[in-house]
Amino acid sequence: MNLTARIDSDFLAAMRARDELVVGVLRMLKAAAKMRQVELKRPLADDELFDVLAKQAKQRKESIEQFAKANRTDLVDKEERELAVLLAYMPTPLSDAELAAAVDAAVAELDARSMKDMGRVVQAVLAAHKGRVEGKRVSDAVKARLAS
After folding, report:
1. Domain residues for 28?
2. What is the pTM for the complete model shown?
3. DSSP alpha helices (H): ranges in 41-113?
4. Same structural domain, 112 and 138
5. Greatest alpha-carbon span in the chain
6. Does the N-terminal or the C-terminal CB of the chain have fewer CB atoms within 10 Å?
7. Over the chain, what is the mean pLDDT?
8. What is the Cα–Cα distance from 28 to 3, expressed in whole angstroms?
9. Which tens digit of pLDDT belongs to each residue from 50-84?
């Protein structure tokens, strides 16, 4: 079952179960995916849907940070529950060892030798592991690897 079908079936199941949290999160996700689909003028592939998912998850993480700074624990709890629903659809993230191996492979493949090559290496790792790793984490790993 592809990701779109899984989201649709989970949405219907949550509606039947009257799970307002899951229904709300999946409704927003489906709306964001539909907007992206209209932009592209074609159905979304799973990796494109992972991009939409990652964007939604990033928005929740940023909201959690802002609400925590404002001491709004009620809103922090709500955003964390929504984030947990979204993360259930994301692929398993890369471990530190897997990330290091991916960075080493990209550095070797692109023959990167200095910090000037950092952008190319980061893009290669992100493209190879779409949806499984955040850009900041890749950037830090590549920076550490090229600095040594």
Report:
1. 3-87
2. 0.77
3. 46-69, 73-87, 96-110
4. yes
5. 56
6. C
7. 91
8. 15
9. 889 989 999 999 999 999 999 999 999 999 999 99
